[in-house]
Structures are given as C-alpha cells and as structure tokens.
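Box 3.1 A note on notation
Throughout this textbook, protein chains are presented in two layers. The first layer is the amino acid sequence; the second is a token string describing backbone geometry. Keep the layers aligned when reading.
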Amino acid sequence: LGVLCFMLLWWFLSRPLPEHDGTFEVAGIGAPLEIVRDHSSVPHIVGASDADVLLGLGHAHARDRLWRMIMMRRTVQGLPSE
C-alpha cells in the first residue's frame, strides 16, 4: 500500500504544469484581448471593454479552477451526496 501511495504521489508531482501560452479565437468578443501571466502565474487581463475583460476573466478562471467551480456548483445544488 505504501509503494502504491508513493507511486501515485510521484506520478502526480511529476506531471507538467498546464501551458498558458497560445492564441485562442472566441466568439462574442469585440476586440483583441490579452491575458498575461506573471512569474507567480497570476493573470493580468487587458482588453478594450469591460465585457471583453470579463470574458477573459472567465476564461482564466476556467483554465485554472474548472474542477473547483464544478464542485462548488454541485455543492450548492446538493448533488455531491448523491
């Protein structure tokens, strides 16, 4: 059991971190939007309008915390106990 736990921990820690580089095309955006991450992986979002920036914020949250957002939604709905 100890060896299995060690192997699982090793696998989890040796996986690469998610890539945050790239260009995406999203429907519903009015002007180009830029999401820049600093050395601590904190997103800084620059856009032409508030609506575009909020769309970028949603994208950054979904990339970073999708599992947590899904679990919080299910918790509020009372679904994890099923």
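The chain has two helices and two strands. The first strand starts at residue 34 and ends at 37.
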